[in-house]
Amino acid sequence: MTLLGDLRVAVVASALELPGPELLPERLARAVARVLPVDGAGISLFFADSRRLPLGASSPAAAIAERLQFTTGEGPCLSAHAEERPLVADEATIRSRWPAFYDGLVAHTPIRGTISLPLHDDLRGIGALDLYTMPPNDVTSLSLTDALSVSAEVAALLRDAGRETRPGEDGPAWLDAPAAERRSLVWQAMGFLNSGLGVNSTDALALLRAHAYADGADLDELARRVVEREIPLEHLALDHDSPT
């Protein structure tokens, strides 16, 4: 069977454990990690330069790696998106180019290599596929041609599922992925800061990121605590009002 044939079979097989159209990205991520010589995969969308929406990850470590990039505001997927090209990074490259992301990656995951691929087709400019490796695997184990072929199939499967949207729906069912719902709390928390502290969205996100990084938390979890009023805005305002 061909690589893409193996991918399709793996996607169908994962539906037994992960039923429901909103879980398609997670099924795809697991299938990608199964058919390529990598240890994890994640799929995400960018609907603004600073707003990244995770859709599905193949494992807890892959999900953590995505949240670390979003929390620190740096990482290979963000750079690949900005540069509009595939980006392959071994441990030395990650350490030197994205040090804050690297520190979190080493502290919280066994991942030491990344391959970040912008998606094309209907997702050109907004979609991304991240691949992760752990020792003894490394990024040299993967054929970039195979990775690009798989990323094209992922984009096509998401596109086809998106075109099956029922009347009255705002978009593809896979946009309701659990990871995306969790990330939406960040936008809500930013709105709290907009109105409560009188800061714009850019400064609100920067303030949330600074607090999350200082506390060793991921930004999604900090946002949940802000939205549920476990962290009062007055606490966040302390750093905002402090002189630099």
Describe the structure.
It is built from eleven helices and five strands, in the order H-H-E-E-H-H-E-H-H-E-E-H-H-H-H-H. Residues 240-244 have low confidence and may be disordered. The protein is 55% helix and 13% strand. The longest helix has 20 residues, at 178-197. The protein has helices at residues 3-14, 24-35, 60-72, 76-83, 91-97, 99-108, 144-162, 178-197, 201-215, 219-227, 233-241; strands spanning 40-48, 51-57, 87-89, 113-118, 127-133. The chain is globular and about 60 Å long. Helix 8 (178-197) packs across helix 10 (219-227) and helix 9 (201-215) packs across helix 10 (219-227). It has a five-stranded antiparallel sheet with strand order 2-1-5-4-3, sandwiched between helices. The chain has two domains: 3-174, Beta-Lactamase; 178-241, Arc Repressor Mutant, subunit A (Orthogonal Bundle), CATH 1.10.10. By secondary structure, the chain is of the alpha+beta class.
How would you concisely characterize the structure shown here?
The protein is α+β, with helices and mostly antiparallel strands and 244 residues long. Helix content is 55%, strand content 13%. It has two domains: 3-174, Transcription factor LuxR-like, autoinducer-binding domain (Beta-Lactamase, 2-Layer Sandwich); 178-241, Arc Repressor Mutant, subunit A.
